[in-house]
Amino acid sequence: MKLSTSRGGFIMNRRDFLKAAAIATATAAARPLSAETVQNAPSVKSYREIGKTGLKMSDISFGAGKLSAASMVLRAVDCGINYFDTSPDYGLSETTLGEAMGKIRRDKIILTSKFCKPMPYPGHLPMGTMKKDYIAAVEGSLSRMKTDHLDFVFVHAIGEMNKDIELEKKRLLSDEMLGAVAELKQAGKIRFLGTSSHGPNNMEELLMTAVKSGHFDVIQPSFNFMKFPQLPDVMKEAHKRGVGVIAMKTLAGAKDMKMEAREEEFPQAAFKWVLKNPEVSGLIITMKTVSDIEVYLKASGAEFTSADQRVLDRYAGLYGKEYCRTGCGECEVSCPAGVQIASVMRYHMYFKDYGMEKRAIQSYASLTRNAAACTECDEPACTGKCPYGLPVKELLCDAHGSLSLMS
Predict the structure, then answer these.
(1) How far is Cα 86 from Cα 26, in angstroms, rounded to an integer?
(2) 107 and 45 share one domain
């Protein structure tokens, strides 16, 4: 293994870093399960209706963005998890899910994927995509997952790459996409249509447009205890119209807990806060290891308590000035270099807190305006522009250092 020097000592080159990270994750995910572990493992305690689809999902469900082994899928099913969220641009996630499908009754699980290309994230199909390409995206997912249909397919990440809301509305309600959906439904290859958004641009307005359009059966917003003042209005409208609401990014940055509470108490408190909202059908959370499944499912069906609120208050006190609120993006307009601040921050979160190092580096490399300019910026216009008091330039420079490992 070759090492390169830096101001902090030594760093691995990118290839060795990613290889080491992948080995560590796979080892943790695949650890053997003793009879005692299986017997005492938590399980899903609550299933909720997804709008008016007739489907019910486990309140805490499986985000497969870091799926490392088919055994993880089987373990989740054994624990009662029945909803699995993946995408063509989540690495080998769809293929790994496909490896598990031969051992799972298809009618016992809900499979969702996205209108995306099988390339490093983000692979979202852009505005102007033709109907045949939407159809090809779904057929590719079906082939990789070894199944004959998806329960949901999503127009993914509305408001992520384009600040022009009218253009994003055109992508959201594309005639080519809707035509493909009609054809795919007729062929029995998909059942329902959804859309997702983690911002940073116009998340609430775009999701409200989706809800009121009548075309979508479910929305998937970023939703946690740290922000989103307008999102409850969208969720209430969705609930009124029978549109399901599935929450993501529920851990508000998933920072390590450096406080008195046990580490596992924070995710449980965060999940219970989300699930106390009656409009929420369920939440998806990336599950990388068996331990994740065991810890997260302890919140299933559980009541949100005053003790949970105290845990969240302590977390907010510790990390409120570090966590870039997903879906915000209010500081971006101040940057004369046009740095895609919110996307840089989110990819750094994937790298630093989510254990998705490879995906984060690849996604960062795809940005047209990353944070390289920040390292030479002497008079940062972003200073003081964050409504939550984050030191924007310092965080961007840190992100660029992490996500631009030497090749």
Answers:
(1) 18
(2) yes
Whether the Cβ atoms of residue 403 and residue 348 lie closer than 8 Å to each other: yes
The residue with tokens 């775009």 is 206
Domain boundary among 256, 273, 307: 307
Three-state DSSP class for residue 324: coil
Q: Give the pair of three-digit tokens for residue 212.
A: 């009121």
How many CB atoms sit inside 10 A of residue 325's CB?
24
> Do residues 353 and 260 both lie within one domain?
no
Residue 83 CA to residue 405 CA, distance in Å, equals 35
Residue 154, CA distances (Å) to 64, 170, 330 in order: 15, 15, 26
pLDDT along the chain (407 residues), means of 10: 36 47 47 46 95 98 94 97 97 97 96 94 90 98 98 94 89 97 98 93 94 98 86 96 96 69 80 97 96 95 96 90 78 87 82 79 85 88 87 88 70
- Burial class (CB within 10 angstroms; exposed 0-12, middle 13-18, buried 19+) of 127: middle
201 touches 163 (CB < 8 A): yes
Q: What is the CATH number of the domain that holds 78?
A: 3.20.20.100
- DSSP letter at 154? E
Cβ contact 247:223 at 8 Å: yes
Q: What angle do CA 20, 21, 26 make, to 5 degrees?
A: 100
Claim: this prediction has a pTM higher than 0.70: yes
